[in-house]
Amino acid sequence: MDYQQLIEEVYHEVKSANPSGKVADYIPELASVDPNQFGMALVDLEGNIFGVGDYQVPFSIQSISKVHTLAMVAHVFKSKLWSRVNVEPSGNPFNSIAQLEFENGIPRNPFINAGALVITDALTSKFDNPIEEVSKFINEISGKECVQINQEVMDSELKHSERNTALGYFLKAYQNFDNKVEDVLKIYVAHCAMEMCCVDLARSFSFLANDGYSIYAKREIVTESMARRINALMLTCGFYDEAGEFAFRVGLPGKSGVGGGVAAVMPHKFSIAVWSPELNEKGNSVKAIMALELLTDKLKFSLF
Ligand code: GLN
């Protein structure tokens, strides 16, 4: 399979269809991003890189970092962590608070904000300096010192964190939060404010296409069984209330972020990152989803 030709074809088809959306505008730093940027990078399991468009431009990875943080604390299945967060699709927007009350403070899954806050709370308990540990972890599994935290994005997120703060206190009211809400929020916004380009992001997802083993870190990051579980969670919950649509159209485990990035994996073949800042009303990148849909159509296989 000529992956370079494949992604170039996809890139040009998406460019000429030019589906539009709206860049995230809840903070000024994201609202001012050039909406026309678009890039994709595919990395195979030997580490060969195929890229097109703005694939080397760093962007805000936002909620894609929830996969990295989950991988850092997930290793023991059936540990206490999995009694604190469920593994069901939410069918609700990423920042919804409603289900938490009906489900006794147990978030539906680790990728909605409530669930990701529980994961970041677990990280906060585990490490003395969690922000440094997350950067170190992502650098290690990308094989490169690539992670930059955008300080302005981080400060701005903190200033506009009313909803996430509310989620934190709600979790605390149900005894599902061990640390101080403000402390965990700082770590959460820091990992959301990390910037990476498509190549490095695809590399950082490579272990999930490779049964948990990272060819960059040269070690098992999660067990083969946990890699399958994280992929299952991405497939069912990675796009919040659009997870079904993404599985239907693309058929790959993937995770989106409001910076316009999507990272996805084709188990035993490759990992891929696509970035275009314009989002649909569910907060997912319009062009990235279209690109991945075309990609699996052209490949004639997905997970299925
Ligand atoms: N920082 C954003 C938030 O917590 C991340 C959301 C996302 O990328 N879906 O609201």
Task: Please render the helix and strand layout as text.
Layout: H1 3-17, H2 28-31, E1 39-44, E2 49-53, E3 59-60, H3 65-73, H4 81-84, H5 98-102, H6 113-126, H7 130-142, E4 148-149, H8 151-159, H9 162-173, H10 181-192, E5 194-196, H11 198-204, H12 206-209, E6 213-214, E7 219-220, H13 224-237, H14 243-249, E8 254-256, E9 261-266, E10 270-275, H15 286-299
Antiparallel strand pairs: 1-2, 1-10, 3-5, 4-5, 6-7, 8-9, 9-10
Helix pairs in contact: 1-15, 3-6, 6-9, 6-10, 7-11, 8-10, 9-10, 13-14
Bound molecules: glutamine.
EC number: 3.5.1.2
Family: Belongs to the glutaminase family.
Keywords: Acetylation, Hydrolase
Gist?
With 304 residues, this protein is α+β, with helices and mostly antiparallel strands.
Descriptive keywords:
304 residues; alpha+beta; Beta-lactamase; three-stranded antiparallel sheet; 47% helix; globular; binds glutamine; acetylation; glutaminase activity; hydrolase; EC 3.5.1.2; Beta-lactam/transpept-like
What does the model show?
The chain has one domain (3-299): Beta-lactamase. 47% of the residues lie in helices and 12% in strands. The protein is built from 15 helices and ten strands. It has helices at residues 3-17, 28-31, 65-73, 81-84, 98-102, 113-126, 130-142, 151-159, 162-173, 181-192, 198-204, 206-209, 224-237, 243-249, 286-299; strands spanning 39-44, 49-53, 59-60, 148-149, 194-196, 213-214, 219-220, 254-256, 261-266, 270-275. It has a five-stranded antiparallel sheet. β8 and β9 (261-266) form a beta hairpin. α3 (65-73) packs across α6, α7 packs across α11 and α8 crosses α10. The longest helix is centred in the N-terminal third of the chain and has 15 residues, at 3-17. The structure holds glutamine (GLN). Glutamine (GLN) is lined by residues 62-63, 94-95, 113, 157, 164, 192, 257-258, 283. Glutamine is lined by residues 62-63, 94-95, 113, 157, 164, 192, 257-258, 283. Its EC number is 3.5.1.2. It comes from Cecembia lonarensis (strain CCUG 58316 / KCTC 22772 / LW9). Belongs to the glutaminase family.
